[in-house]
Automatic annotation (TrEMBL):
This is Ribosome maturation factor RimP. CDD domains: YlxS_C. GO terms for cellular component: cytosol. It is found in: Cytoplasm. Residues 91-157 form the Ribosome maturation factor RimP C-terminal domain. Required for maturation of 30S ribosomal subunits. Residues 14-88 form the Ribosome maturation factor RimP N-terminal domain. It comes from Brevundimonas bullata. One of its GO terms (biological process) is ribosomal small subunit assembly. HAMAP family: RimP. Residues 174-188 have a biased composition (Acidic residues). InterPro entries: Ribosome_maturation_RimP, RimP_C, RimP_C_sf, RimP_N, RimP_N_sf.
Length: 200
């Protein structure tokens, strides 16, 4: 789930070692848009504590730009956006379901599981290669194979907002009155426009 398309996967293979050299882990890579102006979105965080600063976003953006300037993997102009995963973050790795055990999440599978594809409940960690989740209105903990999960995201709750406030306080940032929901408006975001050679 870190990469959705074959093109995303190819870019991720280039970005992963760059991020690792900076002590960062790539949460998700998405290349979006048409042929005229595309947007490459990279979500990343520190390996040690799953947080990231604006400065680290900028460093990763510059490092990726250098690699892409040499390799030229994207034709035409594109906007490079490096950001934190945000508070109501996507869950793209099996590790994420363990890290955020106890928080509410929404999951979607690529196939029917007991008559449905969408699930909502409290994460209960992982068991082997399965995501464990306590579903709303059900007594038993459900186990969903991670490879069947096509999309997953934390639900914005008071508990999650408190966690975000604690992270900001640890960084010495001022407390926010209310954080906007949605990936496009995450905190710790830096946007840099990079022009590649026009191959048209």
């Amino acid at each position: 789930m870190r990469a959705k398309t074959a093109e995303d996967r190819a870019l991720l293979e280039m970005i992963d070692p760059v991020a690792e050299s900076l002590g960062l882990a790539v949460v998700r890579v998405r290349l979006m848009g048409g042929t005229l102006r595309r947007r490459l979105q990279i979500m990343a965080e520190r390996v040690v504590d799953n947080d990231i600063s604006v400065e680290e976003c900028a460093r990763l953006s510059r490092a990726v730009s250098e690699v892409f300037d040499a390799a030229d993997p994207i034709s035409g102009e594109y906007l490079l956006e490096v950001s934190s995963p945000g508070i109501d973050r996507p869950l793209t790795r099996l590790l994420d379901f363990q890290l955020f055990e106890g928080f509410e999440a929404r999951l979607e599978t690529d196939r029917m599981v007991e008559g449905r594809k969408r699930f909502k409940g409290i994460l209960a960690g992982v068991e082997g290669d399965n995501v464990a989740i306590d579903l709303d209105g059900e007594d038993d903990t459900a186990l969903i194979p991670f490879e069947w999960v096509s999309d997953a995201k934390l639900v914005l709750t008071d508990e999650l907002l408190k966690r975000g406030a604690a992270l900001r306080a640890a960084r010495g940032e001022p407390e926010d009155d209310g954080l906007p929901e949605g990936e496009a408006e995450t905190e710790d975001t830096t946007n840099i426009t990079t022009s590649t050679k026009d191959k048209a």
